[in-house]
Amino acid sequence: MNDTVTTSGFSRARAEIDLGALRGNVATLRARTGGAALMAVVKSDAYGHGALPCARAAREAGAAWVGTATPWEALALRAAGLDGPLMCWLWTPGGPWREGVDAGLDMSVSGMWALAEVVAAAREAGRPARIQLKADTGLGRNGCQPGDWPELVAAARAAEASGAVRVTGVWSHFACADEPGHPSIRLQLDMFREMLAYAEGQGIEPEVRHIANSPAALTLPEAHFDLVRTGIAMYGVSPSPEVGTARELGLRPVMTLSARVALVKGVPAGHGVSYGHTYVTGEETTLGLIPVGYADGVPRHASGRGPVLVGGELHTVAGRVAMDQFVVDLGRHKVQEGAEAVLFGPGDRGEPTAEDWARASDTIAYEIVTRIGQRVPRHYVGTDTGPDTDTDTGPGTGTPADPNGGTPPSA
Ligand SMILES: *Cc1c(COP(=O)(O)O)cnc(C)c1O
After folding, report:
1. Looking at residues 383-411, what average pLDDT do you find?
2. What's the pTM value of the predicted model, to 2 decimals?
């Protein structure tokens, strides 16, 4: 590995994605979930980490399944050559059901409208659709209510008997698994067992039964069933403080977000900093300009609070986070333009973690990593297949990113 490239080879900002850490996290999760298969959840561009490289790395580490929210996300992975079991669950009227059938996706069905549309698409395609029936066991979001379940199960059985569909799964999702001991967890598990038993009693023979997300995979063995669907833990981020820190859970953060200090300058006491002058220097001091902002996913709610390791020392966002930049008060710390500012990473070098930013922004660490924008180039390390690579385009969308993002220093 070329250290110059991995630690200095960017100009404005970059997100380093450690696929070795991701593979290690998959192995850790598999070891902790016994015989259950693992679904690598790579929705929303793998929580900002890049859907395709993460899906591939997860497969290498033994993830039998890959999951996305929207069918478009799943179809993009198929088009890029990802084969094997691939499920998506957030459907709206109009599909793309036919494309889903043709691509061999496992398609979630939460209601009668969806079953009717997928059956029509399968008949048109001349091959059975793989569907998974989703039960609302208490989340109150997507999924079929217990009262509507007999009608959906009967219709799915009939469609299966006609050869239009194969019911490959019965599944559900927790509301409060990130709060171990929450009373809803037990109630949802009981309801899941009941709805599953009903479906099986009606002749449904699912290949996979599943309800566990990351927190349930980590804390609730009786929720593992045949498959656990892990997103956040696979990216080395804890689902919640109650579940533990990443380190306690044996997980290693995959994303490191860094920027280069763009300007260092002395200012007098009493100088306002950034929009609104919510920060005013107390004495003569040195300000450092960090060239990332809320357009890059740095939360504006972290104004005055976000932690950053600048030139090896911890500092705090001074004043407001703007669209493209924010400022830190460096005090007497001598820093030069071009010095590295690490917003978050694994914490090895004393840098903050995504969890630290979540606390500073009154949000969850899921949001911190997922919102890192397309303008920040992703730089992949720990790939199995060759030298480290930078993306010339933002992952997922094909949107041009900072053209200098991956350029090694010329001097
Ligand atoms: C996002 C999602 C997951 C993964 O959740 P994590 O807490 O990130 O592991 C699992 N299942 C469904 C239905 C989801 O939407």
Report:
1. 43
2. 0.92
pLDDT category, 10, cuts 50, 70, 90? confident
Q: For a pocket test of ligand 1, which of 213, 219, 238, 254 has the largest count of ligand atoms closer than 8 A to its C-beta? A: 213
Nearest ligand 1 atom to the CA of 173 is 13
In the set 134, 198, 275, 294, the catalytic residue is: 275
Fold of 19-235: TIM Barrel (3.20.20)
Residue 134 a catalytic site member: no
Report which ligand 1 atom has the smallest distance to the Cα of 177. 7
Is the C-beta atom of 134 inside 6 A of ligand 1?
no
- 47 as an active site residue: the answer is no
Work out the average pLDDT over 238-253.
Answer: 96
Read off the tokens for 214.
Answer: 């990351």
For domain 255-391, give the CATH number: 2.40.37.10
pLDDT for residue 9 is more than 80: no
- 239 ligand 1 Cβ < 6 A: yes
**Mapping DSSP to helix (H, G, I), strand (E, B) and coil, where does residue 295 land?**
helix
- Locate the domains of the chain by residue range: 19-235, 255-391
Ligand 1 neighbourhood includes 143 CB (under 6 angstroms): no
Instruction: Report d(CA 10, CA 5) in Å as an integer.
Output: 8
- pLDDT, position 385: 54
* Predicted pLDDT of residue 7: 47
> 374: Cβ–Cβ under 8 A, 6 or more apart, which residues?
394, 395, 396, 397, 399, 401
Taking only the tens place, the pLDDT of each residue in 306-340 is 999 999 999 999 999 999 999 999 999 999 999 99
